[in-house]
Design goal:
binds flavin-adenine dinucleotide
């Protein structure tokens, strides 16, 4: 079942031209469009379904600095800075709250891993620290058990995924940006070796730059251009409960479950640290690129063989732009959740927090995470095609970093000094012999 998402008023007419066309209306595309519009650049945001229909409304809602890959730290710190005042900036409601995030450790091994990460955070003077005993108890009202220790960041927060990207897209529109929904981009119009426009199912939009923020579809989009973007789809399952009293305000993660309080008083709950990889032809194509990740994360990723293999197999590698494209055939990617993972999470949650025993499970859903071989995103120009930019591959943690990533992409497209050094996110790292190193994972 797909979670309900705040509707966004869309434009009915396709503009003949825009300085920049953004492809994909998740949190990354919406944030990019907003920051471009804020710079006075004309922008059209094209979404094949509805705004935030895919990952951006299906995630847990964590906006966390802690536990990040060190290459993402400067950007997530900027992103949190944006989140803290975002509702004023966009004159909208993303549901952001700085309620803190707690990563609990059951045993010494987990505690050591959490503690090791503090070395990465030290140069940035983050407020992340290890806590024990009463400090943990104070953050976890209603807990029926104890944990060895926890890594805690008071300055981390959460927002409402079903509201945030829609609110940001609506703000981009108020600043003059065009928001086009049910408007798949079939491909790029290339003239004299550079981007001259995009071809949508509703017609052509001339532009100088196109930003691909297509989430789990980005690889397929690039494939039609002869550009190889190594990307795997990882399926994450989530559920939401009815309101629960006497339960944590802070978001928390343990190896058994993760939870985040929703504004409606219920909780988003999922199995901590386990996701599914539905085996498809891309798993074989990118086996070498993803091998370190798959090998290093064998406890957290379950390989599943099912109908997805045949669906992906049937996808064309190339298609003409004057006919229906694969993006129009699936308006909203809505995979089935894994009941066994969610049942296990519910059981462990109820054992740890008895207040959840009376809570109803109101909804269950899943989303496809777009993962890169090093679990770090691509936020970058594509050197072989001037005018083409990619912001994708957020590897399961793009919601919290979304506003910062959108700001960085807008800087790169407009040629402004970037808010942070974009080198770690360059697309060329997949082809220039750089070593793919997984530090934080999906
Ligand atoms: C279960 C789950 C839990 C997660 N939990 C967290 C979390 O707690 N914190 C966190 O930071 N991150 C989390 N994430 C990751 C986060 O949701 C994503 O990284 C983030 O939403 C990515 O945003 P996006 O805009 O790149 O992609 P998406 O939200 O997937 O948006 C891409 C959009 O592009 C559109 N599109 C694709 N191709 C085309 C085309 N050709 N033409 C037009 N439109 C197109 C799609 O329809 C889609 O709407 C989680 C993800 C999942 C699935």
């Amino acid at each position: 079942m797909a979670p309900r998402v705040d509707p966004v008023v869309a434009d009915s007419d396709l503009p003949a031209r825009a300085d920049v066309v953004v492809i994909g209306g998740g949190i990354i595309g919406a944030s990019t469009a907003f920051f471009l519009a804020q710079k006075g650049i004309s922008v059209a945001l094209c979404e094949k379904g509805h705004i935030a229909g895919e990952q951006s409304s299906r995630n847990w809602g964590f906006c966390r600095q802690q536990g990040r890959d060190p290459r993402e730290l400067p950007l997530i710190i900027e992103s949190l800075r944006i989140w803290r005042s975002i509702d004023r900036t966009i004159e909208g409601d993303t549901g952001f709250r700085q309620a803190g995030i707690v990563y609990l450790a059951e045993d010494e091994k987990a505690a050591a891993a959490h503690e090791k990460w503090l070395d990465y955070a030290r140069p940035y003077q983050l407020d992340t620290r290890m806590i024990t005993g009463r400090e943990i108890d104070a953050l976890l009202p209603g807990a029926a058990r104890q944990w060895r220790s926890a890594r805690y960041t008071a300055s981390d927060g959460h927002a409402e995924p079903q509201q945030a990207a829609p609110a940001i897209a609506a703000a981009a529109r108020r600043l003059g940006g065009k928001v086009l929904t049910n408007c798949a981009v079939r491909g790029l119009d290339i003239a004299a070796g550079r981007v001259a426009g995009v071809v949508t199912e509703k017609g052509r939009v001339a532009c100088e730059s196109a930003v691909l923020a297509g989430g789990a579809w980005s690889r397929l989009f690039c494939r039609n251009l002869g550009i190889t973007l190594p990307q795997l789809r990882v399926r994450g399952s989530v559920m939401r409960t009815s309101p629960v009293a006497n339960a944590p305000e802070a978001s928390l993660w343990t190896s058994g479950f993760g939870l985040r309080k929703r504004r409606d008083g219920g909780y988003n709950v999922a199995r901590g640290g386990v996701n599914d990889v539905d085996i498809g032809p891309d798993n074989f194509r990118f086996l070498t690129a993803f091998w370190p990740a798959l090998r290093g994360m064998h406890t957290g990723l379950r390989l599943r063989l099912g109908k997805r293999f045949f669906e992906e197999f049937a996808l064309p590698a190339r298609w003409p732009l004057d006919r229906e494209s694969p993006f129009e055939r699936v308006r909203v990617l809505d995979p089935a959740p894994s009941p066994d993972l969610l049942d296990a999470a519910a059981e462990q949650l109820r054992a740890a927090f008895p207040a959840f025993k009376d809570a109803r499970i109101e909804e269950r859903w899943a989303g496809y995470i777009d993962a890169t071989p090093d679990a770090v995103p691509v936020i970058s120009p594509v050197e072989q095609l001037p005018g083409f930019f990619i912001a994708t591959g957020f590897s399961g943690h793009g919601f919290g970093i979304g506003p910062g990533a959108g700001r960085l992409m807008a800087d790169l497209v407009s040629g402004a000094p970037p808010i942070v050094d974009a080198t770690p996110y360059r697309f060329a790292r997949f082809s220039d012999g750089s070593k793919m190193e997984i530090i934080a994972g999906f």
